[in-house]
Amino acid sequence: MKRVLFAAALCGAGLAQAGAISGFTGSYAVGNWTSSAGTGTIAATPAALVLTSGDDGSGNPAYTSFYIQFTKSATVNFSWAYATADDAPIYDPFGFLLSNDLAGLATGFGLLTDNLGAQAQSGSYSVVVAAGQYFGFEAQSDNTFGAATTTINGLRIVEVPEPGALALLALALTAAAITTRRRRAG
């Protein structure tokens, strides 16, 4: 019985970690994301993403974004470090994108920087993304008085196990319990 329970515990731990992806790798590799640099720049590696907002002097708003559609529900965790040469972060904010469709990305911006805060900021964030939703990062710009640069690292995406995998684990645990009960009764 102890062996059966130990095997079931290992199976459960494996299921919990099987969907964990670190960095821009696997299904979330850099090449699978869509980038839209606007007047800014994007530099991406498996370990980090660097978004630099535009500063072409036009005064026209611009958006530098990097996004992907999720095929599975997941929790996304990441750290970010931001610095702007502009007068205040309100002119070149950074945040994440979350939307049910591509058209909604324009309004699905979640501000992470403090608009009235320091010119250098950092933090960590966690967000739940449903299967089918688009998720990404965005640096916005007023295109004047200096750009802002944000580095995203420590990306960790924990996918929710498929219902079938959880049902299989529950079936294995039930079978183990029935087998143990029959041995004790017999």
Automatic annotation (TrEMBL):
Superkingdom as given in the UniProt entry: Bacteria
Keyword match Membrane: no
Keywords: Signal
Endpoints of the signal sequence: 1-18
Domain Ice-binding protein C-terminal residues, every copy: 160-183
InterPro entries xref list: Ice-binding_C
Name of this protein: Ice-binding protein C-terminal domain-containing protein
Species: Pseudaquabacterium pictum
